[in-house]
Amino acid sequence: MTAHRDATSYTRPIMAEVPDIRVIEKGAIRTLRIGRIEQSSMYVDAPFETDFDYPAYLHVTVAVVPEPRRALVIGLGGGTVVKQLWRDHAELMIDTVELDPRVAEIARTHFALPDDERLAVHVGDGRAFLQSTTDAYDIIIVDAFDDDVVPLPLRTEQFIRLAFGHLMEGGVLAYNMHGSVVGDRSKPFRSLHRTLATTFRTVWTFPVGLSAGGAVGAHREIVLLATNAPLDTEELLSRIASRMDERVSVMGFDRVGADLYRDPVRTGDVAVLSDPPRR
Length: 279
Fold this sequence. Notes:
Number of helices: 9
Oligomer: single chain
Shape: globular
Number of strands: 10
């Protein structure tokens, strides 16, 4: 399942006092809903696991950088990706930036985000954080949304160059987005792909659930990874299939490679994304 599931059957809201942010529990699953979109979920009895598919794809970053020391995750939500990175990689220091302080608090109180010195939560704007820090990272993940759209300031060429400037040599920048890889609704994806390619030699595309069937142009979650690491696609897929020699315990990770999109991405009719001109 993905973050666009119909939530009408969900019951027992446990934070109904906040109109636009709800934590809802049904059976074994607890879900964070922001506005109309379900952003995160966890199994109450197994808080590091989720019934959402996309987090496993973001862990492909570790297949690109097998021994990461520092990671930055922009967009915390319920903290699924952050928790799993923290669990599986004992030497990894993680910064995560969340715009809404209420969400940051909910991740701790309702979604079992660890309170640990290896995991620092910063409340604020992700781009502003990158502009202010001098730290460099092996992995940068953008998993932030305004409704179901990644905010433009986190997708432009200027931001991508900023992120690149904070990557260690051979590091990886990853995005989670909603869209289509082909068809009438594919321009946002293709524009981001083209924009990433202005800075990175390699951009891999993983449409979530592609191998399970359905139209290739269906609207779905898409994870993109951009890097200049000297790593070919077949080696990447081998690392995924072996779970990085069993170092990645995330459910479904070993099957993610089946969803790699291998066809050329058509970008000649879309623009490189840019910051609006200053007035």
